[in-house]
Design brief:
4 copies of one chain form a homotetramer.
Chain A (H helix, E strand, L loop, with lengths): L2 H16 L6 H8 L3 H7 L3 H19 L9 H18 L1 H12 L2 H28 L6 H25 L7 H15 L5 H22 L1
The structure holds a DNA duplex (21 and 21 nucleotides).
DNA sequence: CATGAATGAGAGTTCATTCAT
DNA sequence: AATGAATGAACTCTCATTCAT
């Protein structure tokens, strides 16, 4: 791995563990065993590291959410989607815990973020539309849009919300799974009978994941 | 107003405007035209100011949410509750935008926060139960509990979520009203016919509030 | 007791416990339950408190060391002298632990101190001279002067020296008695047979004092 | 000289001149013409500088007091020992003037200090034992131990004691030589005829040193 | 006599960033 | 590419002292 990538990697790990404001550029350099000067050879400043992390996040987002990705079944596709969503959040969790302050000081990042949010919204909407066509959901357009925005809100805020509930802001995989379940519980009341069966299975699947993660 | 209160007041305003990490004790003192020494005469340190702000918040929370508060009608009571919730958030919005980092470094505050969350959950649950009895909601116990926790999550995260969407993390009253509407949209699908009419009226009410706030 | 005296009293106690540089004027006021303004009504500044303490010390010095004080015997007189010396040190022990810095910043106090030292030397010399006449010591003038200055050095430095050896600079009465014994051990080799018996008895006396103080 | 060493050097000089509590880290940095940040690049905090100075002192102590150091004669060895002792004190005199307060706040340093004191005691005792064997001293074991502890006390306290006597706590080399003479005067009465001659010569030597230092 | 709020200089320390090598 | 010493502005906090009441 190139030094530049190692810096991104280490910074991400430290940000996730300790929160971005508590990690100095010297910490990152020390963690890698390189000099601060070297770090600044690869990045103009701390903000640029955050930008790079965000770019990676945005890339993961587009790569992981190809709606035309082939799948064995619609159920499989939903599972893959949920997994992707929350794994992304897990990997970049520091970001969600400090969003307002990070974006406030960086208008460019703010725009990047909004673009990412837009694409997230688009493919979430597409996914839900597909489920309606499959006959799992029975909702009118407006209600679907409303559900969509609520889901996005909950997903985007889950880490933040849970950080505040957990002592020392320690987020574990189990917390992530709990977020998926929360989402599914919100969708469940809108489902048709056929859909309810599918969602029920998926809920059961994540309950087990969560149990094994907690153990 | 006493200096101690002026400090709390000024700190809250600055925190809300610029984010807590970006406001130094010297900024607060300068804002009030007092010496840094004087600020430290009234507060041992910056953390104690945050504590005092939080205590005020917790007080507002208990004062503003008396379930036995007399009201003309259940509808009036719901309106009052929603107003109180989101006005509280508006007043202490900095807090929601920086929760994870603020709580991480202060275990005592973390506990205070969790206590406040608990009481919030309790009275939210009581409120929803009342509506079910009135015949506005038609839900089973489990579904009600799930709705309750979702609503709490959305309410608690609204400011955080919107801070990230808004340039410079500028939160306006219109954003707050939008949050109320979001909540109502989530409750609406669960209502009875009778309930739907009531919620519809309230939604209309907040649409107008929002329109006049934006103008 | 008048406020002024209470201040002196409290300041002395705190200085002894925590070291003069670690005791602020606010600590003293708080200890007495008076306002800092009141403290400054009675004393122009912190230095003046130290001066007053020193004046009290100087007074105790002259009062407690009257060579013409009547005594049952020479032995009694020696005992009284040793007791007085080390009790004085115990009472004003903070002073000995911080002398260089206290005197450096205050030329007036420096002069007062030198005067006190001079009188201490004078009456110590008188005491030793008396013992020589009594036939307890057998020394020539020069040796007597040398012994005298050594004794003064040891007595003056005892607290300082022991502070450095003891964890947290905690000085106890036992440490004081140990100092008396140190002094007596230095005098002992110079004594005549008659003198040795007397000194031996006194040593035994202080050994018991020390044992009971330690218990 | 490396910056780190220059900092130690400058700090030591300033501490000696003005007393450790009166010298700030900014003073040291300014004295060297470096930034405060640079100082903190080399030392985590002020205490660490003091530790480093002490470590150097402890090193000088072990290096300068090799008992097996070859010497032309016992007399030469004694001279070398006395010189080393008091030169060490001169070089680190700030330390002796502020011991109680410096050690009180730093338990680690306290332990280091006690260790150093122990080794000092050991080699002083060895030196005196040697002189007894050479036939310069005629003392029993207990008396020798007592003399030893008195000498250590006097040596350790000399700077402190003299700081209080001298205006502005200004210690000069002449004061140091006077300390050596004080020590010798204390040993002198215990010597045999042979020893007395030797000590007499050494006393004469230091009287001349002192005279030339004063001039 | 007494209060207690207020002052302000300055303490120790941090950290993103630079730059000569 | 990389080092690591160096910068300097800014931060939190302290404390002897003042002053209106």
């Amino acid at each position: 791995m190139k030094t530049r990538d190692r810096i991104i990697h280490s910074a991400l790990a430290l940000f996730n563990e300790q929160g971005e404001p508590n990690v100095t550029t010297n910490h990152i350099a020390a963690d890698l065993g390189i000099s601060p000067g070297n770090l600044y050879y690869h990045f103009r400043n701390k903000e640029e590291i955050i930008h790079s992390i965000f770019d990676q996040y945005a890339l993961d987002l587009t790569v992981g959410f190809q709606p035309e990705a082939p799948a064995e079944s619609d159920q499989q596709r939903l599972l893959a989607y949920l997994d992707a969503t929350f794994q992304l959040m897990w990997r970049y969790r520091f970001f969600y815990a400090n969003l307002p302050d990070i974006l406030r000081r960086d208008a460019v990042l703010q725009n990047k973020y909004l673009t990412a949010q837009q694409s997230l919204k688009t493919n979430l909407f597409a996914m839900l539309g597909q489920f309606r066509e499959t006959g799992w959901l029975d909702m009118e357009d407006e209600a679907l849009a409303s559900l969509c925005s609520t889901l996005k809100l909950v997903a985007s805020s889950w880490i933040f919300y849970q950080s505040a509930q957990a002592p020392q802001a320690k987020i574990t995989p189990a917390v992530i799974y709990q977020g998926v379940l929360q989402i599914l519980n919100m969708v469940s009341p809108m489902t048709t009978d056929k859909g309810r069966a599918v969602v029920g299975e998926i809920i059961e699947h994540y309950r087990q994941q969560m149990a094994s993660a907690s153990a």
